[in-house]
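Field notebook, page 436. I keep forgetting to write these up properly, so this time I am using the form the group agreed on. The chain and the ligand, uridine-5'-diphosphate-xylopyranose, are recorded exactly as supplied. Prediction of the bound pose follows.
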Amino acid sequence: MRLSVIGCGYLGAVHAAAMASIGHEVVGIDVNEEKVNSLSQGRAPFFEPQLQEILQSGLDSGRLSFSTDMSRVHGAAVHFVGVGTPQQAGGHAADLRYVDAAVNELLPFLSPGDVVAGKSTVPVGTAARLAELLAPTGATLVWNPEFLREGWAVQDTIDPDRFVTGVPSGPEGEAAANVLRDVYHSAVAKGTPFIVTDYATAELVKVAANAFLATKISFINAMAEIAEATGADVTQLADAIGHDPRIGRRFLGAGIGFGGGCLPKDIRAFAARAEELGRRESVNFLHEVDAINLRRRERAVQLVIDGLGGSVYGKRVAVLGAAFKPHSDDVRDSPALDVAIRLHGLGADVVVTDPEALDNASALHPQLTYVAERDDALRGADAVVVVTEWDQYRREMSPSHVNGLASGRVIVDGRNCLDPAAWRSAGWTYLGMGRP
Ligand code: UDX
């Protein structure tokens, strides 16, 4: 099928390349010329496993192209809208200007029967408003949220847990849902659930899923706070409650909490939208989820202060990790980088390392010192802080190796990803999050 993808950020670039990889002919459109040039030359503008490969093979096959020229979308049967919906500068609500601009610029190139599929995460009610804009063109709007995880984006796009498609009622909606079934034919044919619903439900599914995941993480982080007050071990607690299949162990990793381009902004936008709808009390707990999450960053900083005997001033601190999670170079709202910034603000001599995220981190916070090699960060460190659980720090860094590099013997495990016994027996003061 001929498809267009408007917006070539994390979501759009992966979607375009993934759709080409399953056999469609795809044009990706973005206003950013640099991004389009880079994609057209087969260079992924961000780190995402497998993206480079499917991008190159899509370009080589002739089925994938990128352009800044919106008229190139003409003739596509489905137009995916995957532009960003960042947090508004002065508040918590989502900034919809890019979605509105994308749809408005698309209008002149739509033909009756085309399907416009919104993928951006939007406040509930947005699709109904955009559908009115589209009505005169004869195109049908559907809302088809994306659940991809960074680091697994290609796999999640090609082979997701489920498809959700919000459609208008009646035959027009049914026909549009069938068009999307055709787009995702390979996954649908093997039985991936394909849920057809109304616009509001589809929009809400996305924010509800992210709100649930954020709540799960903050729940276990709240338990970590209680564990800290009682001497209990939150990781054993998580293992134990996680055996209950109704609870499940995934997303019960206590530590410095969630960050990234989605969970933080999405729960804030959801709370802001609920307030507009007169339902503030229904999601009031999300403010608590956010507050618990932010407290854990402060807790990690406090552990470094405690470990260094009351002050980090003038002390050299190796911060291992800058990305908001491993397998990503994304530093948007990264708890890891936030911990580094806070330590720097307290006068520590902070050295940050990360296998993928240094360019993004140094562009955002040039005041920190960055080194590419982990061991260069560790050399001479009075304290070591693990804030992103890359394998390089979690599995491939033995206490005896670090003994030969660091000056101090204090390690703060901001992701509860190290073996406390191994570090302690090598002479280290190990401080975890919610662990005795
Ligand atoms: C999330 C959703 O998972 C995805 O479905 C949605 O489409 C976009 O938002 P992503 O932002 O890529 O995906 O990251 P995710 O893997 O969900 O992790 C989010 C944050 O939570 C990371 O900072 C991670 O370190 C943290 N986290 C995750 C924890 O602190 N503990 C956990 O147990 C799991």
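OBSERVATIONS:
- The radius of gyration is 23 Å.
- The chain has two domains: 2-197, 222-436.
FOLLOW-UP: compare against the apo run.
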